[in-house]
């Protein structure tokens, strides 16, 4: 009889624990659903207030095609290059692609997935706006400056160009035109402007060069430079590929060169250099050793 009483007590405790878990799970589910409902109401109010025409995807996000583009339709297997702006519905900016830089990936790899869905059928040169409820964005945890349960509005502007090489070349040409700079395009795709012609030893592939230099982004931000009488000495072969445009130039030459991102640091962002950045260098060939 004692054993029966003990068994009944255990069964009662297990039942209470199980009911407690069910209540807790139901409570969590209701809280999650209420967040979805609250987010959706906020988004709909925002759309109405700003007189927007947006489509609601079955998964819960909203999107609007601002420009369908004029190029070819981008498929999941295609590389896509774009600028991205992310902000809150109140206008707080969380992320903007750096000036003279861009994002890039395959359309099929776009994250979060709503971006990929919103871009379905878009042509190169197109533009879309996407509003993500918090559960499809960064949820309760947030991310970086994005707080918990934040609705985010993103604008993706797709480049007409289908390759990073074409984008970089256009950026350089547009920059040169805007600044009134006359430069020559080398076979390696680096643009160069000879400011002073050298008269000494010519640079070859095995040369060690001594230079004074300043490296900038196209927005004018200096990311590296020699200071005062300081110089950099290095084998040409150890420098980024774009510097090979110095081949054939002579000691004493002063040049300005514009390097496409793939001949600089490519997708490998540096401390002061965003990924896919065109580089702008002033270089003085102080010495050449062969």
From TrEMBL:
Q: Where is the PPIase FKBP-type domain?
A: 206-289
**PROSITE patterns the record matches:** FKBP_PPIASE (PS50059)
Membrane-spanning parts: none
Reaction(s) catalysed (UniProt annotation): [protein]-peptidylproline (omega=180) = [protein]-peptidylproline (omega=0)
- GO MF terms, alphabetically ordered: peptidyl-prolyl cis-trans isomerase activity
Q: What's a Pfam family this protein contains?
A: FKBP_C
Family stated for the protein in its record: Belongs to the FKBP-type PPIase family.
- Tell me what this protein is called: Peptidyl-prolyl cis-trans isomerase
Q: Which SUPFAM superfamilies match?
A: FKBP-like
EC number from the UniProt entry: 5.2.1.8
- Keywords per UniProt: Isomerase, Rotamase
Q: The organism sits in which domain of life?
A: Bacteria
């Amino acid at each position: 009889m004692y054993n029966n009483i003990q068994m009944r007590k255990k069964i009662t405790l297990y039942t209470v624990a199980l009911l407690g878990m069910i209540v807790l799970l139901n409570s969590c589910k209701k809280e999650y659903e209420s967040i979805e409902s609250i987010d959706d109401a906020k988004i709909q109010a925002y759309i109405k207030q700003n007189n927007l025409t947006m489509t609601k995807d079955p998964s819960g996000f909203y999107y609007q095609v601002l420009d369908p583009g004029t190029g070819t339709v981008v498929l999941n297997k295609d590389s896509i290059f774009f600028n991205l702006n992310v902000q809150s519905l109140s206008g707080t900016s969380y992320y903007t692609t750096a000036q003279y830089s861009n994002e890039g990936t395959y359309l099929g790899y776009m994250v979060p997935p709503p971006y990929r869905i919103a871009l379905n059928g878009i042509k190169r040169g197109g533009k879309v706006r996407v509003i993500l409820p918090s559960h499809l964005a960064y949820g309760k945890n947030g991310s970086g400056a994005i707080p918990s349960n934040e609705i985010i509005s993103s604008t993706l502007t797709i480049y007409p160009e289908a390759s990073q090489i074409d984008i970089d070349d256009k950026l350089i040409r547009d920059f040169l035109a805007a600044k009134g700079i006359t430069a020559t395009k080398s076979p390696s795709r680096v643009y160069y402007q000879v400011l002073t012609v050298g008269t000494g030893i010519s640079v070859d592939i095995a040369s060690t060069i001594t230079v004074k230099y300043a490296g900038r982004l196209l927005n004018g931000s200096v990311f590296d430079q020699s200071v005062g009488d300081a110089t950099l000495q290095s084998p040409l072969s150890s420098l980024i590929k774009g510097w090979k445009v110095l081949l054939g130039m002579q000691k004493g030459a002063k040049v300005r060169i514009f390097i496409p991102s793939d001949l600089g640091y490519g997708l490998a962002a540096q401390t002061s250099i965003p990924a896919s950045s065109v580089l702008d260098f002033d270089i003085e060939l102080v010495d050449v050793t062969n």
